Amino acid sequence: MPDTTAHAPSLPCAVRDRLLAVLGPRGLVVEPGEVAPYTSDWRGLFSGSALAVLRPASTAECAAAVQICAAAGLKIVPQAGNTSLVGGSTPLGRGDEVILSVARMNRILAIDPVDLTMEVEAGAVLAEVQKAAEGAGCLFPLSLSSEGTAQVGGLISSNAGGNTTVRYGNMRDQVLGLEVVLADGSVLDLMRRLRKDNPGYALRHLFIGAEGTLGIITRAVLRLQPANRDTAVALAAVASVEAALDLLGRVRRHAGPSLNAFELMDRFGVALVLKHIPGTQDPLAEPHPYYCLIELSSPASEAGLRAGLESVLAEAIEDGLVRDATLAESEAQRRALWRLREEHAEAQKREGASVKNDVSVPISRIPDLLREGTAAVRAIIPDVRPCAFGHLGDGNIHFNFSRPVEMTNEDFLARWDDIVAAVNEVVRRLGGSFAAEHGIGRLKTATLAAWRAEPELEVMRRLKRALDPTGLFNPGKLLP
Ligand SMILES: Cc1cc2nc3c(=O)[nH]c(=O)nc-3n(C[C@H](O)[C@H](O)[C@H](O)COP(=O)(O)OP(=O)(O)OC[C@H]3O[C@@H](n4cnc5c(N)ncnc54)[C@H](O)[C@@H]3O)c2cc1C
């Protein structure tokens, strides 16, 4: 169950003066009213006071600020776009925390279309990175619903996944080089842009997915891809998750590496989007139990993707596997179909309290997960409303539960731990993960302790002690 602690001590004057000298007035926020927006998460579930928000404009400023905070015994909560869904980027409210936001370090420094690399600062917003890559005739393939807000530093630190993992992998797979400010204020320069670079420990991987507990990422070299020039998007309605899996197999066999995304949505989730998000509409004549959103793309300009996808779907309709389908005829239609998927989080938020499970299982076990998980949660709260959607193509389902219509948000959220435990019990039995792509933050530290064996946890603790012996960075997050 998320906590919501809050109280408001203040930054010692001498420390404030030193930070002001390094960061300048734009780089230091101390007024409680201006600090407040940084202290709550996107869903309003995790908040805690901070003494100040530090907003360095360069790596040097960041390093100097880290030294000042370390000397003063303060703790630093790194923050980028603050879209963490596990309470990773907001303070606990212990009274000794400052937030270090990298949002002002948002420049795209260089793009090389021959090397297929981009050098960026950690505060660059994902949508801007995508746009810049496109402007250079390339593609930055990571894509998620928070892309208008999430920033490179946060995406790397949480090793974000998203809609295109099935083809391009997670954020980890997009990072060739990094620059990190360490706990002693030194700068670790790993800004190499090589595809092959094999001299022992791959240090950058330590910081990818470390959720801000080992250092502050200030710059990165990202791997780009050739731009896709042919795209086909379809929405296919199916009667069951088994049928969705069958369709995934058919599309994969047909499209091979052109399969960009294969997303699952249940009717409840689509109905919430249609209810709460203005301008959305159901592209099919009737409601159906499940929907698959399929995207194919290729760098070849006339790859014939649309015709190919159409014939796969026509055959699937003839075989009784697909009940109805529509293919996007224009960019506007493509966007409209994707909106049905991307607005799920917002629509669920507007519907009231929900409990989110970001889980993965082997793809073949997804039908078992949804059936057994729903039964397990209904045994606790019979009228609960399951909302399962996500990345079917890589086995990652956002297996969420909205409160029953007649239940208050408060009463429902009081059952948070019970619901999560019921789902996790099924996930574990099916050989899955309780933290597929959103990470641990402060939400899942206890679960990490319960799921991972002591030797693995001890190696994590040793790494933390080696790089951050005083526990300067992101206290209370990730490590149990
Ligand atoms: C609507 C919505 C949809 C989402 N969809 C997806 C999805 O499909 N897939 C997915 O994986 N996630 C998803 N997320 C979760 C979230 O957007 C991602 O995890 C994203 O990577 C977080 O980026 P951010 O810039 O907001 O980071 P923040 O939330 O600011 O930070 C995330 C973590 O990284 C740390 N951190 C931030 N910046 C730095 C830095 N410079 N150095 C070191 N540590 C740092 C923080 O302390 C925190 O632990 C979604 C969130 C929302 C709100």
What does this structure look like?
By secondary structure, the protein is α+β, with helices and mostly antiparallel strands. Among the domains are: 108-226, 2-Layer Sandwich (Uridine Diphospho-n-acetylenolpyruvylglucosamine Reductase, domain 3), CATH 3.30.465; 230-344, Alpha-Beta Plaits (2-Layer Sandwich), CATH 3.30.70.2190; 352-439, Alpha-Beta Plaits (2-Layer Sandwich), CATH 3.30.70. 34% of the residues lie in helices and 20% in strands. It has 17 helices and 19 strands. Strands 12, 13, 14, 15, 16, 17, 18 and 19 form an eight-stranded antiparallel β-sheet that branches. Helix 1 packs antiparallel against helix 3, helix 8 (241-255) runs antiparallel to helix 10 (305-318) and helix 9 (267-276) crosses helix 12 (344-351). Residues 1-7 have low confidence and may be disordered. Bound molecules: flavin-adenine dinucleotide (FAD). Flavin-adenine dinucleotide is lined by residues 42, 77-85, 88-89, 102, 122, 144-146, 150-151, 153-155, 157-158, 160-162, 211-212, 216-217, 345, 437-438, 441, 474, 477.
What characteristics describe this protein?
480 residues, alpha+beta, Uridine Diphospho-n-acetylenolpyruvylglucosamine Reductase, domain 3, Alpha-Beta Plaits, eight-stranded antiparallel sheet, five-stranded antiparallel sheet, 20% strand, binds flavin-adenine dinucleotide
